[in-house]
Amino acid sequence: MLGGVNNNLYLISLSGFLVVGLLALLLRWAYSSKNSLIERDKKIGSEDEYGLLKVVTSPKNHIEGEMLRQKLLSVGIKATLSQTKTGPKILVFEEDLKIARATLNS
């Protein structure tokens, strides 16, 4: 009792608002598109949409691209084979670009 008034009804209604608020946060998290458990369709981008990765070469198809990627991986260069709007590309980090080109040309 605060000030001689029974605050039981006040505390019950306050806890009801708290429960509704927690449920709203839970539903917002569950239905947000960023944390979805369902895989989204892949978006094919252009060559300049891959951040720090730079194009080393453009293979004719994915089979040739995978063979070239494996060649880069065997010498310790991290490489990614990705489908872009202009066809498959092998992408590496900029600091590995010269070594990757030399490796693929040999």
Spell out the blueprint of helices and strands.
Elements: H1 8-30, E1 53-57, H2 62-74, E2 79-84, E3 87-93, H3 97-105
Antiparallel strand pairs: 1-3, 2-3
Please provide a brief summary of the model.
With 106 residues, the chain is an alpha+beta fold. The protein folds into two domains: 1-36; 47-105, Alpha-Beta Plaits (2-Layer Sandwich). The protein has three helices and three strands.
Written overview of the protein:
By secondary structure, the chain is of the alpha+beta class. The chain is 42% helix and 17% strand. The chain has 2 domains: 1-36; 47-105, Alpha-Beta Plaits (2-Layer Sandwich), CATH 3.30.70.1530. The protein has a 3-stranded antiparallel sheet. The N and C termini lie far apart (85 Å). The relative contact order is 0.13.
Structural shape: rod-shaped
- The name of the CATH superfamily of the largest domain reads Hypothetical protein rpa1041
Number of helices: 3
Query: What is the H/E order?
Result: HEHEEH
Mean pLDDT: 86
Class of the largest domain, according to the CATH hierarchy?
Alpha Beta
User: Which value, in Å, is the CA radius of gyration?
Assistant: 27 Å
- Indicate the percent of residues in helices: 40-55%
The CATH architecture designation of the largest domain is 2-Layer Sandwich
User: Care to count the β-strands?
Assistant: 3
Spatial order of the strands forming the largest sheet: 1-3-2
Major sheet attributes? 3 strands, antiparallel
> What amount of the residues lies in strands?
15-25%
- Poorly predicted segments: none
In terms of structural class, how would the helical and strand content be classed? alpha+beta
What is the CA–CA distance across the termini? 85 Å
What is CATH's topology name of the largest domain? Alpha-Beta Plaits
- The count of domains is 2
